[in-house]
User: Fold this.
Amino acid sequence: MTDPMDERRLRDLLERSFAEEEPSPELWTATKRRVRRREARRRAGAVTSALGVLVIAAFAAPALLDALGTRSIEFVSGPDAAESPDDASAEARRALTEELAAAEIAEQKLHEALEASPGPARLHAVAAGGPGLVAVGSRPDEATGIWTSSDGVRWHESTAADGETFGGLMAADVEVAAVAGAEPVLVAFAREAAGPPRFWVSADGRRWAAAAADPEVFAGATVMDVTAGGPGLVAVGFEGDPTEISTLQSAVWVSTDGSDWQRVPDASDEYDEDVMEFVVEGGPGLVAVGTDARGAHVWTSADGYVWERDRPHLETRDGIGLRVVALGPTGREVVAVAYARSPGMAADRADSDRDEADEEGAEGEESDAIAAGAGFADAFLLRSQDGRGWTDTWLPPEIFARLAVRGIAELDGRLVVAGEDAYGAVLWESSDGGQSWTLVEGVLTALEGMEPIAFPDSLAELTDGDIAYGVYVSVGHSAEAAQLANGVERLRAAGFAGSVIDLACDAGAFEQLELDEDRQYFGAPVYFSTDTDAWRFVTAWKRQFRVGVVGVALVERGCPD
Amino acid sequence: MLRAAREVDDAAFADVFRMHAPGAFRLALRLCGDRQRAEDVVSEAFAKVYPQWQKGHVADIGAYLRRAVVNQVNSGFRRLATERRWRERVSGDGRGLLAMEDRSADTELFRRALLRLPPSQRAVLVLRFYEDLTEAQVAQALGCSVGTVKSQAHRGIARLRQMLGDSALARGQR
Assistant:
């Protein structure tokens, strides 16, 4: 609507163009009769449906719980979140507990699954340490949190030791930049917009205490990363004004305990106009990676006090200039994720994938995910045993071109890359040295406080004429379309009995999903009583599978005559 | 589904009906253009809302009903496969401008033009400019994005202009 006159005229015409504005007095009687008829039909169907649900739950729930315990990331929130669930969530949880308890499902495990929080919405850093991995990120409420995991699957949020340790982080505008694994201490530190860095230390990654570092030691400098090594801990960064490259010079600090830091004088005096960004134990003792105006550089040191910078820039074997975004130790070697400094073939490949997806129905909002990625630059996994000679492996662009990498670490022989994509924090793992990658899938947190119309079989209780909010995870022109099979598989992995339906059976779906009414569509749906639950499911779906849904529609169940 | 079933409370639901049925009927009338069909749509919408209302699932019954009415009208059109035939019956050849010789009958022309719009465009215009919902509320009612509401409104207006003539909408209130 562009012309206000149009709006006024349209309102007027809409008001005046329909006579006889009141419904007839008989309408209430007719409606009451219709309500009672439907109620009777519903009661008759409920008896058989209830029996069916119990039988289905008895068979399907163990599979769901297995899935929760093996292939899922499970972020368990701290005591504050666990002790104050909202009323709706508590009621739905109780209801679902009752239902599954009737099928003799272990209640304790169910409660664990239902209390899973969404985990970090954003991820700042991940490092090996503590029980295995330590992650620093932001919760959905944007408060900063720290999570630990022994297996990369189940995550626990750390508690603040003194009630103020992370309270300070939340209240102040502080960005946590890294976590360093050190034995026996872990160090988290924050870069503030102005002022010296702040440090926290922890023995186990679960409880943290502020470390009182002397701010004078860091005057005029910025800490970029910390690791175990040298005399105990080594920090790298730079001094100078980051907006004036000519003023920059790499800087190194060492500490025995995380509190008492000493600046290493002239650690890399041979060169300037560069910045050390990452440091890990490895090679001759320590390996650092950073950059200058022309590309990536590597520094090595035996003790943290004397550093040597490589002379040529770090490049792939094909001479592609790199920008390193994550560096991690594996015990045997140093690994890094790097992106080409200029966009490459990944862009064309991503566009081609998207075109193919457009041609055959729809599965989620892939374009959103791609748009949030790293700019289609080619990504590489770099490995080195000594910090001097490096090998590179081209990383799959369908994963890494849309991922903002925050950390790389080794866990039980697997490489784990943590990062963020369009849907939040995510972990990918590789067991073959980076050749192939698998998403570490999360719990379908949709179950938390949700009330699907029928669980786990989403169609079990829906009969013709019922009205429900349908979430369509994928649609296609053929019942055999690949994206439909994929959607069904994901629904089943999440504990729902996914199936393919003819969308014509969900009256209202075509219009709301904006599908071409002259074509036939099939869909993989799950149904909910309320739009709130439907949209919460969508959010959880995106978080777990890193792909959107086709849409949500309030539909009437019933196939055309 | 696991909540204890409440007893049917005819009196309370009758109050809800008295309060919301007239508005739902006027909305349905503008969406489908037929009084008898509008009553049927409203009756069916209330019958579908009832179990949700009884379980306490409906926080905003006006919004819920509005959405049910829109869906009922649109899905009914499609499911019965009558819309295309119906549009053709209303509009003659189904294309081009409506006859504009009788300018005094502008409300009737408008009514016919409105009912020739695709259901989604008609729903957006009626909800936006008759129900006076905001674009965000229309989006929520139709389960689509605000961008879709804007584009559908734009297309709907353009189509009305095409059918009624460029100046028809802008002639001001009489």
Q: What stands out?
A: The longest helix of chain A spans residues 27-70. The radius of gyration of chain A is 28 Å.
